[in-house]
Amino acid sequence: MASSLLLTLSLLISLIVYSLSSPLSSETILDASEILADTGYLSMSLTLELISDTLFPNSHSLTIFAPSDPAFIATGQPSLPLLQFHFSPIPVSLETLKSLPYGTEIPTMFQGHSLTVTSSPSDDRVSLNNVDITPLPIFDDGFLIIYGIREFFDPDFEVRAPESSFGCGFLRTNSFGNASEALRSGGYSLMAGFLDLQVLEIKKSTMMTVFAPTDQVLGNRLGNFGEYSSIFLRHVVPCRLLWTDLVKFNDGAALPTHLGGFSINITRSGGILMLNGVPVYYPNMYISDWLVVHGLRQVLSVPWEGTQEGIAGATDESGGSIEDYTPDYEF
């Protein structure tokens, strides 16, 4: 499964921001160790004090997933790579963890190994590598965040891709709430607003796929209020299409949308899947049993707004070269 590209970008931005701050102080590590010990994570408390100077002496931020004392007893003395697998160089807040879609990868200090989100935004829990984390952080000062887990993560864990249930039909009930929250948390607030306000424009019971442009590019297109409905409806397909479904379409396939007379044409350029000349930037941003959302970096234009001629030499509506934003997947 492709990594969640938006998370990767946000993590890179976070690395830049937090690299400008001071390294984690010994006082912060000591405070965290004391709280770990007081909350029943004595083994991790002692481990943190012992390895902090050598494992992350100059870290500016950190997320730690602390195994319980029984886990340490069952496993014995963990190896250094196994410990590194439980440390991420990014402070990942609980709000962020809850918003991440299934299959999102979170980098760790164990080189070449990432943790994988195995829950979805609609769940009432957060799990990584099929291990639930504590409902609230044990410690959180904005730079160092610690969660508890009942067992050690398995570095050899492999995520199972969500099963495709490609369909164009109707369900009895559904809700846009969780999808809207996922969109807002990822920088797609305007599309979330459309989803909330334009519900009556679409039959509430239909399966659908939403192709969501970012706030930055969509904001540049919102001038005439009368065009809002057109902009929204042209990005909605009355079928549930996972990324694995999209890549199975042949070049030239046309996806009908809720905007009458407007279709989304599938092509490929240099191995990249294109929708009316626009690459999918964030596949499977949100998945439910009736709705899938994919992120875009451009608005899908209607013919009279300009032609779509692929990515060669083109620019996206935020001013950058499309090649700068080409997602890292091929088929």
Task: Report the radius of gyration as a whole number of Å.
Answer: 22 Å
The CATH topology label of the largest domain is FAS1 domain
Sequence stretches where pLDDT stays below 50 over 5 or more residues? 1-21, 304-331
Mean pLDDT: 77
- Distance from N terminus to C terminus (CA atoms, Å) equals 12 Å
Indicate the overall shape. Answer: elongated
Strand order of the largest sheet: 10-9-15-14-13-12-11
Please give the largest β-sheet.
7 strands, mixed
What does this structure look like?
A hairpin with a 6-residue loop joins strand 3 (105-107) and strand 4 (114-116). The protein is α+β, with helices and mostly antiparallel strands and 331 residues long. Mean pLDDT is 77; it is low at 1-21 and 304-331. The strands form 4 sheets. A 7-stranded mixed beta sheet has the order 10-9-15-14-13-12-11. It contains 11 helices and 15 strands. It is elongated and about 65 Å long. The protein folds into 2 domains: 5-149, FAS1 domain; 177-325, FAS1 domain (Roll).
